[in-house]
Amino acid sequence: MLPGRLTPEQGAFVRAVDAFCTRECPAHRLRELTANGTIAHHPGLYEKLAATGWVGLGIPEEYGGCGGTLTDIALLVERLGYHRLPLDGHFATVITSQALIRYATEEQKRRVLPAVAAGAVLSIAITEPDVGSDAASLRTRARRNGADWLINGEKIYTSGATHARWVLLATRTDADVAKHRGLSLFLLPMDSVEVTPLDMLGQVDTTITRYLDVPATDTDIVGGLNQGWNVLVRGLNSERMIVGAKAVGLAQRAFDDTLGYVKTRHQFGQPIGRFQALQHGLAETATRLLAARLMVMHTAGLLDVGEPAPAEASMTKLFASELAQQASLQGMQFMGGMGYSMEHDMQAYVRDALVMTIFGGTSQIQKNIIAGQLGLGG
Questions:
Q1: Which domains does the chain have, with CATH numbers?
Q2: Cα dist. 219→111, 143, 243 in Å?
Q3: Contacts of 96 (CB under 8 A, 6+ apart)
Q4: Which sign, positive or negative, has the C-alpha torsion 18, 340, 327, 258?
Q5: CA dist., res. 57 & res. 70, Å (int)
Q6: Are 193 and 207 in contact (CB under 8 A)?
Q7: Is 155 helix (H, G, I), strand (E, B) or coil?
Q8: Which ranges constitute the DSSP H helices of the chain?
Q9: What is the DSSP string of 284-326?
Q10: Strand partners, 123
Q11: How far apart, in Å, are the Cα atoms of 229 and each of 32, 126, 183, 275, 378?
Q12: Contact at 8 Å (CB) between 250 and 348?
């Protein structure tokens, strides 16, 4: 099923992405890569994606990209999520590059974005071992060293860092003001960062990163000194929409596999898809899929015209991420023992879906944001 209401150009783009995915990493190849229970890594796949120009989607042509909008990025991410392509760092690169496009200086853009469009990976480091949902309480510090800075701290769940060339690092640059006001973002080369990969349940490429007297200058600051919180908030809205797009892709894949199974699996002399309990369950999932996809497109459209859309972004992330879990768990239940077997991909969909309600802000945090936008915040 294609994302609803596509233009002819968008339809051709989606079909091209599908063709790329099935050619470069078909389902049986992905199964081979994850046979030992590890996160899939497909050497050279990211470079092949970059060669299509799609890594540069959303990056203006003047910086080496192919232009396009967040709506276009959402279409790409949904289809990559549907095929579960093991693209180490792509998700983090999309999120970080969007922040740079909006807030980086001209020099920073020209230094970094052409390399990104050509296949360089970006990472973003916000969460810390003792700081999660309350991101403004981060403890990583940048202290003045003459006219420059020295940065010290530790981050966890720094996605894409294993393969990244640069990291966008959230730090505290002023400890004497309110926590939301003393934050800055530094764009740093990864060769000065210590990286430790984390072993995760599903297909998530994330790490611990440590910063030990990492040098930086004022020219590395993105968005202005002590202005990091504003950049993060705006960036998180885009991230939540993009998480929603990826979740829709995974939910659609789980739904399609389940639908195919119930049409061909026979019990009591007929396909199990003829039993009303299964029919109603799949009808509800199909309805939620349409709603989630429309929410993604609506929110992307708002962001494309400059609306911050905090409520819509959180609603999209909340609804789509929980749908990915519901659809994959439904598939496992309807497929019975086969759905629980390592011989079928449904168990992998479940593992991948479980993190969807966590990263980018948990479902509980999304509900808090939505309530605040309704004027119900404390």
A1: 8-120 (1.10.540.10), 124-229 (2.40.110.10), 230-373 (1.20.140.10)
A2: 12, 15, 31
A3: 122, 123, 124, 166, 168
A4: positive
A5: 9
A6: no
A7: strand
A8: 8-24, 27-33, 45-52, 70-83, 90-103, 106-117, 228-264, 276-304, 310-335, 337-340, 346-354, 363-373
A9: HHHHHHHHHHHHHHHHHHHHHTT---HHHHHHHHHHHHHHHHH
A10: 167
A11: 42, 11, 6, 52, 20
A12: no
This prediction's pTM? 0.94
At residue 155, φ and ψ (nearest 5 deg) are -120, 155
Using the CB atoms, write b or e for 215-245: b if 16+ within 10 Å: ebeeebbbbeebbbbebbebbbbbbbbbbbb
Residue 113: HSE in the Cβ half-sphere, 13 Å Cα cutoff: 27
Helix (H) or strand (E) holding 185: strand 183-189
- CA–CA separation, 334 vs 31, rounded Å? 21
How does pLDDT run along the chain (378 residues), one tens digit per residue?
A: 444 578 999 999 999 999 999 999 998 888 888 776 566 677 789 999 999 999 999 999 999 999 999 999 999 999 999 999 988 789 899 999 999 999 999 999 999 999 999 999 999 999 999 987 888 889 999 999 999 999 999 999 999 899 999 999 999 999 989 888 999 999 999 999 999 999 888 888 889 999 999 999 999 999 999 999 989 988 899 999 999 999 999 999 999 999 999 999 999 999 999 999 999 999 999 999 999 999 999 999 999 999 999 999 999 999 999 999 999 999 999 999 999 998 899 999 999 999 999 988 999 999 999 999 999 975
- Please give the structure tokens belonging to residue 291: 């709603």
Residues in the chain: 378
Distance separating alpha carbons of residues 353 and 269, to the nearest angstrom: 33
Tokens encoding 371: 């309530």
Retrieve residue 151's tokens.
């940065």
What single-letter amino acid sits at 361?
A: G
